[in-house]
Amino acid sequence: MTPLRRIYVGLALMAGATLVIAIVGAALVFFSARSTEVSPSKVIATPTSSMASPPKISYPLSNPLPSKMYVEDVLSALGLPVGKVDGDYDVKTQRALCAWRELTYGEPTRALPSDLEAMQIVSTKALAPAANQVVGLNVNIACQTATWVSAAHVVIGVFPVSSGQPGYLSTSVGLWKVEWQVPRWYESILYPEAMMYRPKFFHRGMAIHGSATDALVLPYPASHGCVRMLHADIDRLWDAGFGIGDAVNVYGEWISNTL
């Protein structure tokens, strides 16, 4: 081998060794980097003022709650004297609300209904006599209603009434019986020209009766001691044979301006 050829061979060997060293070095760097790679840590979020738990909200019992007109419609369907079903809670509505309370859980007040009571009203299927009510006609002065209870202890009807004015003219509280009755128009002895429709007298000249007009059956105590009723309701009592010897239970106290 000539000297020149030896030089070429030497240079080739050196170049090859350099390439091998470079490749090995690169490989070492690559695998070393992979073995020391750090996996990203899991981030656990902690609540901050902007990530606070949602507030506890008192959700309504129904969404939406029953409308006032719907509540009145149900009261009317239950046979309670609600007056005009128009979505306006007036004094006649209060009378029906008072009767509903008495015939469901026994605390007759004329206060406007809470949201819970509105839901209970529209869920009511039937009414039952209150614990203090008897077989016969039960006049509640606080509600200005008369609840008719049958011998089977079933509510036959709930009628609007207007009892005696508070004070001297108030209707006497107590358990009475019908003593005598007149099946036609009858002029009051105490108040001449005051006409009573088919009266049934139960205590010292006090009677349940119709008046000259149904408009006098106001939603508050307005009579001179008697219990005013609608003509149709008086007729119903007569037609059913309610009369002499039957009970008239008068109780309660009128509280004005109940909201």
TrEMBL record:
GO terms for cellular component: extracellular region. The keyword Membrane applies. Residues 135-251 form the L,D-TPase catalytic domain. InterPro entries: LD-transpeptidase, LD_TPept_cat_dom, Transpep_catalytic_dom. Pfam families: YkuD. Keywords: Cell shape, Cell wall biogenesis/degradation, Membrane, Peptidoglycan synthesis, Transferase, Transmembrane, Transmembrane helix. This is Unannotated protein.
